[in-house]
Amino acid sequence: MATARKDPPDRQADRDARSSSGRPAPRAAPDPSATAGPPAELGPAALRALAHPLRIRILDLLPIRGPLTASKLGEIVGESSGSTSYHLRQLAKHGLVREVEGKGTARERWWERTPGGFSISNAGKDSPAGRQTAEAVNIEFLRLRNERAMHFLRAGQEADEETVAAWSGSVTFATASRWATPEQMKSLVQAWDRFTMEHLEPLSRHEGEPGAIPFEIHFDVFPTIDPQGNPL
């Protein structure tokens, strides 16, 4: 079963784990402050609550933009604060977001993604409708991820020479195609987990340091399958 990982910068690292369809699903590195162990499985009700494009976008934005109010989220996504407030409450109901302790007021609450992440690998496996819902959630997370990568590439075409020079050697988009057994692929994922803990976790909570900016790394491991289910 394929997984993909999304590492939010400087805050809790959330896991959006594998889908029952075998398609890559967003998954983020474990947060040092969160309880160790696998991410919590979403139940059918929570999965249905998540299956809304705006709610997925909110979950995608919070680790990147930091804790946000409903008003600020509304400005970013082009919705009213009433709409984003409603969706935040629905996400909070299922433990996907939480209020930031000690910040904000009763009228202006700040929200962040809940540490520890979540898994939808078993949430929809018992019914075709559930599997379709899980697949739709995974596809939307991946669409947003790819959208950011394309935005960066387009912005690079308009960057000045100084900016281009500053980024030289710091950015890469790489694809490697190999042949391996499921066990060997699993060992690659486990090696990535070790790399994450050794090299990425020390970068947590660097927000505000001179020169520090949010960034993300994409790591995908999945079998290459054609529409008929045959290996390519």
Automatic annotation (TrEMBL):
<dbReference type="InterPro" id="IPR036388">
    <property type="entry name" value="WH-like_DNA-bd_sf"/>
</dbReference>
<dbReference type="Pfam" id="PF12840">
    <property type="entry name" value="HTH_20"/>
</dbReference>
<dbReference type="InterPro" id="IPR011991">
    <property type="entry name" value="ArsR-like_HTH"/>
</dbReference>
<keyword id="KW-0238">DNA-binding</keyword>
<protein>
    <submittedName>
        <fullName>ArsR/SmtB family transcription factor</fullName>
    </submittedName>
</protein>
<keyword id="KW-0805">Transcription regulation</keyword>
<feature type="domain" description="HTH arsR-type">
    <location>
        <begin position="45"/>
        <end position="158"/>
    </location>
</feature>
<keyword id="KW-0804">Transcription</keyword>
<feature type="compositionally biased region" description="Low complexity">
    <location>
        <begin position="19"/>
        <end position="41"/>
    </location>
</feature>
<feature type="compositionally biased region" description="Basic and acidic residues">
    <location>
        <begin position="1"/>
        <end position="18"/>
    </location>
</feature>
<dbReference type="InterPro" id="IPR036390">
    <property type="entry name" value="WH_DNA-bd_sf"/>
</dbReference>
<dbReference type="InterPro" id="IPR001845">
    <property type="entry name" value="HTH_ArsR_DNA-bd_dom"/>
</dbReference>
<feature type="region of interest" description="Disordered">
    <location>
        <begin position="1"/>
        <end position="41"/>
    </location>
</feature>
<dbReference type="InterPro" id="IPR051081">
    <property type="entry name" value="HTH_MetalResp_TranReg"/>
</dbReference>
